[in-house]
Amino acid sequence: xxxxxxxxxxxxxxxxxxxxxxxxxxxxxxxxxxxxxxxxxxxxxxxxxxxxxxxxxxxxxxxxxxxxxxxxxxxxxxxxxxxxxxxxxxxxxxxxxxxxxxxxxxxxxxxxxxxxxxxxxxxxxxxxxxxxxxxxxxxxxxxxxxxxxxxxxxxxxxxxxxxxxxxxxxxxxxxxxxxxxxxxxxxxxxxxxxxxxxxxxxxxxxxxxxxxxxxxxxxxxxxxxxxxxxxxxxxxxxxxxxxxxxxxxxxxxxxxxxxxxxxxxxxxxxxxxxxxxxxxxxxxxxxxxxxxxxxxxxxxxxxxxxxxxxxxxxxxxxxxxxxxxxxxxxxxxxxxxxxxxxxxxxxxxxxxxxxxxxxxxxxxxxxxxxxxxxxxxxxxxxxxxxxxxxxxxxxxxxxxxxxxxxxxxxxxxxxxxxxxxxxxxxxxxxxxxxxxxxxxxxxxxxxxxxxxxxxxxxxxxxxxxxxxxxxxxxxxxxxxxxxxxxxxxxxxxxxxxxxxxxxxxxxxxxxxxxxxxxxxxxxxxxxxxxxxxxxxxxxxxxxxxxxxxxxxxxxxxxxxxxxxxxxxxxxxxxxxxxxxxxxxxxxxxxxxxxxxx
Amino acid sequence: xxxxxxxxxxxxxxxxxxxxxxxxxxxxxxxxxxxxxxxxxxxxxxxxxxxxxxxxxxxxxxxxxxxxxxxxxxxxxxxxxxxxxxxxxxxxxxxxxxxxxxxxxxxxxxxxxxxxxxxxxxxxxxxxxxxxxxxxxxxxxxxxxxxxxxxxxxxxxxxxxxxxxxxxxxxxxxxxxxxxxxxxxxxxxxxxxxxxxxxxxxxxxxxxxxxxxxxxxxxxxxxxxxxxxxxxxxxxxxxxxxxxxxxxx
Lengths: 597, 249
What we know:
Chain B: Keywords: Membrane, TPR repeat, Transmembrane, Transmembrane helix. Chain B: Pfam families: TPR_19 (PF14559). Chain B: This is Tetratricopeptide repeat protein. The complex is a heterodimer of chains A (about 600) and B (about 250). With about 600 residues, chain A is of the alpha+beta class. Chain A has 4 domains: about 15-120, Immunoglobulin-like; about 125-285, no CATH class; about 290-425, Jelly Rolls (Sandwich), CATH 2.60.120.570; about 485-595, Four Helix Bundle (Hemerythrin (Met), subunit A), CATH 1.20.120. Chain A is about 25% helix and about 35% strand. Chain A has helices spanning about 5-20, 265, 420-425, 455-485, 485-510, 515-535, 545, 550-565, 575-595; strands at about 20-25, 30, 35-45, 60-75, 75-90, 95-100, 100-105, 110, 115-120, 145-150, 155-160, 165-175, 175-180, 185, 190-195, 200-205, 210-225, 225-230, 235-240, 270-280, 285, 305-310, 315-320, 325-335, 340-345, 350, 355-360, 365-380, 380-395, 400-405, 410-415. In chain A, strands 10, 12, 15, 16 and 17 form a 5-stranded antiparallel β-sheet that branches. In chain A, strands 22, 24, 26, 27 and 28 form a 5-stranded antiparallel β-sheet that branches. In chain A, strands 23, 25, 29, 30 and 31 form a 5-stranded mixed β-sheet that branches. Chain B is of the alpha+beta class and about 250 residues long. Chain B is about 55% helix and about 15% strand. Chain B has helices spanning about 1-35, 40-50, 55-70, 70-85, 90-100, 115-120, 125-145, 155-175, 175-180, and strands spanning about 185, 190-195, 205, 210-220, 220-225, 235, 240-245. Chain B has a 5-stranded antiparallel β-sheet with strand order 6-5-4-1-7. In chain B, strands 2-3 form a two-stranded antiparallel ribbon. In chain B, a hairpin with a 2-residue loop joins strand 4 and strand 5. The longest helix of chain B has about 35 residues, at about 1-35. Chain B is globular and about 75 Å long. The model of chain B has no long low-confidence stretch (mean pLDDT about 85). The chains are: A alpha+beta (about 600), B alpha+beta (about 250). The interface between A and B is large, with 58 and 78 residues.
């Protein structure tokens, strides 16, 4: 280094020290007992003459985490900072003050700010379950935590069959590799989860300085029996964690506070571990019995709050004629057990089961709209004010409710229709109503012995396939037999045979030089080919039938044959090879013309 | 020839005797029922079932007797079995609905058009219809050819085609039978579901009497069951449930 360089170095160092600054900062003000916060001591524009000493505070554990240097060059200006890191924490909950302490930089003493750290008890012993979701979840496990909240937070009890929407959240520390072994499930048999969202929503949340990967499901919690039961959930998952048994630790990097060096996680092999997350201390939930008093006869188990959104009833009807009615019901509750409404008064109508379509309004299928479309048959004529009605249990009111739609004026024509019971008993007395308060009466006649099972399904299938195959075979055989005796087909075959015979004779005539024989056979072959497609007798065809279908040379062949046949003229035998070509060309043309036709 | 004749006579006699015994047992159980001796009535109906096979009347009455005894699980089972024989019987449907309502056992029922069609006939009748349709197919073809020169051929061939449609449609209906054989009802509730097929295994929950479950794998005296419409599943002791379609041991 030259003298000039040394001077510049000292000049920059002196200038830097003039702007030196010391700051301290805690990553969080609140930690749980046994956990630490990061304390950073930052020295801008210089370095401490000796390692800073954080004063001792009773029960406060301070663990140095090393020193690092940062350098920035902005518009040619160099700024340098030294950062000393410490982990501070305590095993004893309480309020801790870290007093100001001196830091000597370049011979100059700087005082740090006072810091305050609150150490609260570990949440592993704290109740969870329906707690505030934004609190740091309890660290009862290093791997994660499970909570759930009722969407309706003021609900203190539920009824069997009711669906109470819940939000289930699993917290996993960022960095822990997790593989879910299933979906959240209720503990014990008092509750079931319905309409659990298949894929949880994932998000990263920072709670009290710690990052968590949070999985959120929505579902409906349904009680199966009355009583007071803990509403707990569990979730099976597999986590990848460092194998502590294989952990050796690097000399010089032991961490007296947390018991391991910062490099352990880098070098420790990972092992998979199956864990089951459970809601800690699940809250007791009271399940009330549905009241028997006042239970409507047609109560289907629907629990919630519902209202008619729209009703479509035709304005005119005829007794005995099925008429389509539509109704849309919106609300919240266990829509699965919400059955189609019935026209009122019920004894004036016959109702048939129709179709229903549910459109969920939320992830847990708790709110939504259900559309019913079904047939009703009016039994009594007259001008009616028709309403649709249904019953449900309102859990907020704790009472059964009868819901009726607005009335609709309907003109019903026709005559009074008696139902089967009225017809049998002359209309004096209705038969025992199957939906009445009592069971249908016992049967007094023995009846026939039946069988639960169908005939063995495999044998039935074999019989159907066998008989079907037999029917097809019989059908095919019959068609084949009929084809064999078909006169048109027989005539066609005869013409084909005659054509083949004529062609063979023509070939033989060419070979022997028999001119008359060739022309006779050639004309016969042309007649047969033409007759084959026109489905007439070959003898009935003349030169006129051939005209326009073949070339002139072929017509000449026919004429020559005619002349020889009728006048006895004999052409020279030397041209027979050429005539044979003409014959085959003519036959080909006839086939093509017939195909086109 | 003579021996065959006597065998037929003896067979008919036994049939008649069994019928008389069934009648007597049924009448006696009815008297017990009307006299309020429901336990004896249920026992009597069970005996008639065991001896002669299932009848709608006996199963319905058995369901009513168990209901009077407060054994809702067995009552629901008897009515479910009766509905296999007469799926559209209004008395059976009403009784089953009422008992389920009282036991607070709600089920998720299929109400699609397919199920509605299927429930028009019993399983046995669907299989009979399938075979009848199957036989109609070749018969129609044969008659069509036999009457090829008569006007009857225009009836015979459509009969064959109709038979084919009936056979295929009915066979299609039978596809759901395997599912029926996995249905079971909790008869003695609440039945405890466990995570493993052992008496000492951890409890997973309990199911009330009358709750319908779907049977899975069997391990010894335990069945893996799932509950339709819920996420509940686990092992149930064999003696706490009864398949809707009785299994031959």
